[in-house]
Amino acid sequence: MDSIFILRSSRSSGSAAIRAFVLNVIVTHPLAPADNLVLYRLLGAVFHRQAQAERLCAAFETELRKTLVESKEFHSSGDCSGKRVAFVDGTMTGWYGSRAIEGLRYLRELARKLSRES
């Protein structure tokens, strides 16, 4: 199998250096949650795992829909410009990679918790 290196970066200098010794380099830099769908499908194609990628996309879309619906409900339920402060696990808020689906669940649960506390 050809060597493949997946780099999460927006800097082309890093990918250029890696290209000197790795045959295939995929540079990713999702900017929005839905960008993961393209990434999952790309990686599914690269690794000949399209069916698994589609299942991952379906799971991600389901969690994203739930999160969007619940966050709209949360924001419409009261004044969100108040002075409440909550600690958030920053590692769970990334839209990239393996934590993306769990991150959506985490944010939805955080919204529920904050709603109960208000």
Calculate the terminal CA-CA distance, rounded to whole Å: 55 Å
Poorly predicted runs are: none
Write down the secondary-structure element order: EHEHHH
Domains (count): 2
Give your account of this protein's structure.
The protein is mostly helical and 118 residues long. The chain folds into 2 domains: 1-30, no CATH class; 31-117, no CATH class. Helices cover 55% and strands 8% of the residues. It is built from 4 helices and 2 strands, in the order E-H-E-H-H-H. It has helices at 12-19, 35-46, 50-76, 100-117, and strands spanning 4-8, 24-28. It has a two-stranded parallel ribbon. Strand 1, helix 1 and strand 2 form a beta-alpha-beta unit. The longest helix has 27 residues, at 50-76. The protein is elongated. 7% of the residues are buried. The mean pLDDT is 76.
